[in-house]
Design a protein that fits this description.
Elements: E1 6-8, E2 11-13, E3 17-21, H1 28-38, E4 42-44, E5 48-49, E6 64-65, H2 68-76, E7 80-86, E8 89-94, H3 95-103, E9 107-111, H4 114-124, E10 128-134, H5 138-147, H6 153-167, E11 175-178, H7 182-197, H8 206-218
Parallel strand pairs: 3-9, 3-10, 4-9, 5-6, 10-11
Antiparallel strand pairs: 1-2, 5-8, 7-8
Helix pairs in contact: 1-7
The structure holds guanosine-5'-monophosphate (5GP).
């Protein structure tokens, strides 16, 4: 799960797994899109799911849409890094794409729930950075679920009642961001990623860099 090769200020470092979780409607999709647009060296992990495609979604960009049998086959062949059942449908992270990205020194962004986050943490604790996004209020969450107009009223009602349960896992995450204003929330999430990229343990190129500095100083 580690990688060498991505450079910060010309120095090698390990790639990291950047996880965003939240109840649906807290603005996680927008934050993910902004991160991908504005943070070079970060790529999205595209999940597989058995849920039906929503209007506006694109196969291969939002999800890989598969039927139950295909999903089960992927589980059997150990092709998923983690998987979980959310809202009666199966969701999972294809392992190969993540491993390829990390081995090329790129960071990977995950939009997965708390169950998947727990599994990633068990597999690669040192490489996982997790952020939980909270809505500022229940009314705000409901408004966002209605305004994206992708789900029926019945589905929205179920998502609202699930939100409280999902939120109960907030304390398992490394960072918490409250999404009052998307620009502010984005700046916070971006700061987290920037700081985590600078962590000493991930910066595998530092030892030789410092050694070279010392050599020059002692000349
Ligand atoms: P939606 O159906 O709204 O796209 O996603 C529903 C929930 O499933 C979201 O909380 C999302 O984070 C989660 N999810 C999406 N992909 C995955 C995945 O690959 N694994 C896990 N564990 N959860 C996922």
């Amino acid at each position: 799960m580690t990688a060498h090769g991505h450079r910060v200020h010309g120095l090698e470092r390990r790639g990291l797994m950047f996880v965003l979780s939240s109840p649906s409607g807290a603005g996680k999709t927008t934050l993910s899109r902004l991160l991908l647009e504005r943070m070079p060296g970060l790529e999205m992990s595209v999940s597989v799911t058995t849920r039906p495609m929503r209007p506006g979604e694109v196969e291969g960009r939002d999800y890989l849409f598969v039927d139950q049998a295909r999903f089960e086959a992927m589980v059997k062949r150990d092709e998923l890094l983690e998987w979980a059942i959310v809202f009666d449908h199966r969701y999972g992270t294809p392992r190969a794409a993540v491993e390829t990205a990390l081995s090329h020194g790129r960071d990977v962004l995950f939009d997965i729930d708390w169950q998947g986050t727990q599994q990633l943490r068990e597999k690669a604790r040192a490489d996982v950075v997790s952020v939980f996004i909270l809505p500022p209020s229940a009314a705000d969450l409901e408004k966002r679920l209605h305004s994206r107009a992708q789900d029926t009223d019945e589905v929205i009602r179920r998502r609202m009642s699930r939100a409280s349960h999902e939120m109960s896992h907030w304390a398992e995450y490394d960072y918490i961001v409250i999404n009052r204003e998307v620009d502010d929330a984005f700046a916070e999430v971006q700061s987290i990623l920037k700081a985590e990229r600078l962590k000493r343990e991930r910066r595998t190129g530092l030892t030789s860099f410092v050694r070279e500095l010392q050599r020059q100083l002692e000349k």
